[in-house]
Amino acid sequence: MYCGSIDGESHEASQRKIPPASSMLWVRNLRQYIASGAGLGSEALMVAYCCCIDSFSPDHVKPEEGSISRRVQRLAKYRFLKKQSDLLLNADDLDAMLVCLRENCVIDDATGAEKMNYEDFCHIASVCTEQIGPKCRRFFSPSNFMKFEKDESGRIAILPFYLYVMRTVSLTQARIDMSELDEDSDGFLQPHEMEAYIQGLIPNLAQLRDMPAQFVQMYCRIAAHKFFFFCDPHRRVFDEHVRRGKSGGGHAREMDFESFLDFLLALENKDTPEGLTYLFRCLDLHGRGYLTTADIHSLFRDVHQKWIEGGNYELCIEDVRDEIWDMVKPTDSLRITLTDLLSCKQGGTVASMLIDVRGFWAHDNRENLLQEEEEPGEE
């Protein structure tokens, strides 16, 4: 691509070149870090600039595995993330900050809460900078002080501020850890990368650290799949998962483990946009993006049969259909869309009525169930 060293006009031109914008903040920072040439020689700078920065563009062909460009890309990414990690407060720093906050605050006579005004805030910033270092200074900006609720004296409580610092550090560290696992540096984690991230968290989670070793891999797989279920609802179509067995000896319609997890998550989270999106695509048998009165009649037919077999009173399917229409109030009176179900705030209930006789029973007996919940338990 390019050869020779970078100097003179060619170097200035490379500095003036503006990479494509990105919505990923760490990607933008990485581009700026590489473009600045901090710690890199001129030749390495050009390779990094050409092969690492442009790799974030979706139209760019990524460097081959094992190539010099790929190695420089990984080195630049490692150095950037290491620098960002070094700028974070560690556990000792956070403890020291809490001590500084408590030693330099005032006690509210009415509530007993520990508070500080802006002058105290600036003084604590100076003390923390002396004891901890400049990396804590960014938390003591005027804009941060203005984020918190103030009393009539213009003071803020130190606890919400300290929790804000802790959460910011925790979220930033999590982002760095995830970025380290992003093998192709495209700003996204693949399922196996998310599994690795979750597995790294387990030793630090009290409820999970004693998990049997033979179940760890399966737990990580399930947990990672749940993340992807709620982060990517619109690319999941039920018919894409139901297929013949890979060996050729399976039945016509089967689910693999990931498909079963999707289905289970949707059933357990019917009231969420992600769960309802999945279930709507299951109900949309013709793939038209909407349900008609005929579709409702067909879908409820099996539920109606189970209802009668359970010894319940006779139902008129047309009455149930009309009730669903009244609940949803679709924009088009002849069809129900996913948008209609999401907007009516009762989409989960409608889905339950159409796929599960127990869901319909719960809806039909909702007043009795509500009354039972409100009545005090017997002594």
Automatic annotation (TrEMBL):
Species of origin:
Hevea brasiliensis
Q: Which InterPro entries match?
A: EF-hand-dom_pair (IPR011992), EF_Hand_1_Ca_BS (IPR018247), EF_hand_dom (IPR002048), PPP2R3C (IPR039865)
Q: In its UniProt entry, what is this protein called? A: EF-hand domain-containing protein
Entry keyword set: Calcium, Cytoplasm
GO MF annotations in UniProt: calcium ion binding
Ranges for domain EF-hand = 169-204
Q: Which GO terms describe its biological process?
A: cortical cytoskeleton organization; microtubule cytoskeleton organization; regulation of dephosphorylation
Mainly localized where? cytoplasm
